[in-house]
Amino acid sequence: VQLQASGGGLVQAGGSLRLSCAASGRTFGNYVMAWFRQAPGKEREFVAAISYDGGATYYADSVKDRFGISRDNVKSTVYLQMNSLKAEDTAVYYCAARYAESSSYGHWGQGTLVTVSS
After folding, report:
1. How many Å apart are CA 105 and CA 31, to the nearest integer?
2. Cα–Cα distance list, 32 to 4, 23, 29, 83 (Å)
3. Strands (E), 1-118
4. Which of 28, 42, 33, 47 is nearest to 93 (CA)?
5. φ and ψ at 114, to 5 degrees?
6. CA 42 to CA 26: how far, in whole Å?
7. How far apart, in whole angstroms, are the C-alpha atoms of residue 58 and residue 115?
8. What is the pLDDT along the chain (118 residues), one digit of tens a residue?
9. Distance of alpha carbon 107 from alpha carbon 23, whole angstroms
10. Cα separation of 69 and 27, whole Å?
């Protein structure tokens, strides 16, 4: 599956952004989808994940109650709604896909930069 992330940009602290990740090439519903991020000088970290049908979601503690992950299996797209953004949310955000039988995320998008000004 190929992934194309979009929606990043510059936003003031306290603001909101919605990231999108469009998938193509394989049956989208067979993949667990996730968002990761990598801040300058830091390792990549998990942000959120969503199950095949959207029935289960998982969040890093740092974004819980502020971010929401969702998916539209008809449009083959996963979203990350980011609210109450903080300067520490500044990072390149990557979407990733994990096939049903796989134990790791084997497909990655190109990343979209989110910059939060304080």
Report:
1. 9
2. 16, 12, 8, 23
3. 2-6, 9-12, 17-24, 31-38, 45-50, 57-59, 67-72, 77-82, 91-99, 107-108, 112-117
4. 47
5. -115, 125
6. 32
7. 23
8. 999 999 999 999 999 999 999 999 879 999 999 999 999 999 999 999 999 999 999 999 999 999 999 999 999 999 999 999 999 999 999 999 999 788 899 999 999 999 999 8
9. 10
10. 19
Q: Are 77 and 24 in contact (CB under 8 A)?
A: no
What is d(CA 118, CA 8) in angstroms, rounded to the nearest whole number?
17
Q: How would DSSP label each residue in 79-90? A: EEEE-S--GGG-
pLDDT for the residue numbered 116? 98
